[in-house]
Amino acid sequence: MSRSLMKGFVSIFSAKVATSVLSIATLPLIVRVLGPSGYGDFAFLLSVFSLLMIFISSGVTGGVQKFVAEDRDDADWEASVIWFYFKLAAVLAAVGSLALVAVTGSGFIDQLFGPDYVIYFYLLAVFVIAAQFRAFTNRTLLGLSLEQFSEPIAVLNKVLWIGIGLALGVYFSGGVAGFLLGNIIGDVVAAVLGLVIINRYVPLRTVVGTVTTKLSERQLLTFNVLNIALVLLVMSLYHIDVIMIRMFLGNDETGYYKAALALAEYMWFVPIVLQSLLLHSTSSLWSSGEHERVSRISARITRYTALLTIVMAIGIAILADRFVPYYFGPDFLPVVAPLIFLLPGALGFAIARPIYAISQGHGNLKPLIIATGGAALLNLVLNFLLIPRYGIIGAAVATSIGYGSMFVLHVLSARYIGYDPLDDFRALRIGATVLVSAPIIYLMDMLISSDVLALVVVPILGGAVYFVAAIGTGALSVDELLAILDSFPSPIRKWSKTIETWIDG
């Protein structure tokens, strides 16, 4: 990656590490405060909310991030794009919120889910507005390449919703409603701060009412409609299994399965960083005609993503039986089995994420919709067939296959668009790395009797063994590793310089 891409990557990566650490540290507290049943309700509500927000938010957020980043020969381009999407965001948020209020007020929610859910859905109506403008400001900042501001705000948002939710849950018996209220407050603060930062770079007084003659609202709306369809298909992969489990099996099983998903999805934090960065970064490259550069970037990033997420999958698989009882508590031992089945698919989806973002930046969304639609349909059918018969294990198998198909289908989609993300994948060398390192990591775990010691030692030594094996097999070169480390701030950059001097000496 170029230094400009690496600068953006480091900003987003640092924030993602902070939010991931926060999630890892607080998820056991959230689970314990809510219990399996309450956590199942919370997971179900967030899944329903996320699916609703596809229609309200995805066209706005994806569009503003892509188009505000494009290199257009027009002084008013950025202001015009921001104004267009601000109006669209406000209208869609109002429609979504009022629709939730109307459905809840009609008594339908009470009849379907019970009286507790009435207050939950009224809170979701407020959450829609707060989440819409938080997402709008975040994606606008990303499109303006202001990751150094968007990401700290995202961390603050996470701190607020978790802190407020825990406080209400522990001290005021707020339960699920308390965590929903925490989300609302965190999003409101993030939206206000985002608007303040945007105003410093694109003064809002110059935005309101601005429409450049080169702005094609039809082009933006076409992208929005296609992006909504695309995101709907992607989000169905995340949430259809949770919703089906809640409907078929009940709260407790939903809580167990959601906990397994949460652990499997920790593998995605670097791919999600790359996905956030590459949409607006490659949009600029595509619009400038730098197709060869896009191809080189995609090939290298795909290999790096595979190398990193494979070692994480190995670690989670080996340490799951030790980690889950400590992390969630002994009541959550049923989490281990579905987690193991989820890992292969989560790995495939992780590698597919950067490919998806690069293709999305191209702007031709039809191949992406076909690829994602195939994966979503497979996921839906398999979950419908397997959950009633095999419970949460069936859901894990179905979802893993659906996730894994994203990798295959999006590679085919990328080649259709005009680039090959596997051009420098080095599959045989990556396979050799796994064959060499995985047995050693497993042996380490077997030799250490103490759970706590194993959870500390195995990830560190196992990771070292894996990356030494990767260099030895040629899956990763020393120069590539040093170039990555050199892009980070000190002391990591200083370490890379020291290693480079030692090698040259």
From TrEMBL:
Its main location: membrane. It holds the Pfam family Polysacc_synt. It is found in: Cell membrane. The chain crosses the membrane at residues 12-31, 43-64, 84-105, 117-135, 155-173, 179-199, 220-240, 260-280, 301-320, 332-356, 368-386, 392-414, 426-444, 464-485. GO terms for cellular component: plasma membrane. Keywords: Cell membrane, Membrane, Transmembrane, Transmembrane helix. It is a multi-pass membrane protein. This is Oligosaccharide flippase family protein.
